[in-house]
């Protein structure tokens, strides 16, 4: 008797981001280094029969690109670290990006730790974490993707606001 197909199935989630900042208010150039995915479990979460996995880009790439997009929309000059010498450099780690679903209940935890450097000087180092609970009916891949996108927008909107303020001092 074969047990093929009896294990948890995969559900791929595309990680997207829409900047929430307003244009302007940023002075200087910024480079975003690679973000480290410090999570032990690289899945995005699970329910009783499905493991959620990223499709397209991984969590570290998602956060890195989201940071670049958020700084750019606020008027910062986002420079490549290979091609330019930005005044400020952002780096960090992802410690949580996990969705657990049970019926209509969706619980998402995100934890991103970011550091702003100017040369060798640490300008700002802070952890940004959030816990979101939503009832989603009917549950769908698109609604799970929207929850990831809106939650990261909330976290990085706050983070980049604080970083651009620190960059102007």
In short:
The protein has 169 residues and is an alpha/beta fold.
Characterization of this structure:
This protein has helices spanning about 60-75, 140-165; strands at about 10-15, 30-35, 45, 50-55, 75-80, 90-100, 105-120, 120-135. By secondary structure, it is of the alpha/beta class. The protein has one domain (about 25-165): ABC-type transport auxiliary lipoprotein component (Rossmann fold, 3-Layer(aba) Sandwich), CATH 3.40.50.10610. Helix 1 packs across helix 2. It is elongated, with a radius of gyration of 18 Å.
Characteristic key phrases:
single chain; disordered N terminus; Rossmann fold
Helix content: 10-25%
Radius of gyration: 18 Å
The total of helices stands at 2
Number of domains: 1
Termini separation:
69 Å
And the CATH topology?
A: Rossmann fold
- How many strands, which pairing sense, and closed or not: the largest β-sheet? 8 strands, mixed
How would you describe the shape? elongated
The overall pLDDT average reads 90
The number of E-state strands comes to: 8
How do the helices and strands follow one another from N- to C-terminus? Answer: EEEEHEEEEH
**Model regions low in confidence, pLDDT < 50 over at least 5 residues:** 1-8
- In the CATH scheme, the class would be Alpha Beta
- CATH homologous superfamily label: ABC-type transport auxiliary lipoprotein component
CATH structural architecture:
3-Layer(aba) Sandwich
Structural class estimated from helices and strands: alpha/beta
* Beta-strand fraction estimate: 35-45%
Protein name: Lipoprotein
Organism: Desulfovibrio ferrophilus
């Amino acid at each position: 008797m074969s047990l093929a197909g009896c294990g948890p199935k995969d559900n791929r989630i595309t990680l997207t981001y829409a900047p929430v900042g307003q244009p302007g208010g940023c002075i200087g150039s910024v480079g975003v280094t690679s973000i480290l995915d410090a999570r032990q479990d690289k899945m995005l979460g699970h329910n009783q029969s499905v493991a959620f996995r990223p499709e397209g880009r991984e969590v570290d790439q998602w956060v890195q690109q989201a940071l670049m997009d958020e700084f750019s929309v606020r008027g910062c000059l986002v420079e490549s670290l290979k091609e330019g010498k930005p005044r400020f450099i952002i780096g960090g780690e992802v410690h949580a990006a996990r969705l657990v679903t049970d019926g209509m209940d969706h619980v998402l935890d995100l934890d991103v730790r970011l550091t702003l450097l100017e040369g060798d000087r640490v300008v700002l180092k802070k952890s940004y974490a959030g816990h979101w609970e939503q009832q989603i009916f009917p549950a769908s891949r698109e609604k799970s993707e929207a929850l990831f996108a809106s939650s990261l927008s909330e976290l990085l909107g706050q983070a980049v606001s604080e970083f651009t303020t620190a960059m102007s001092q």
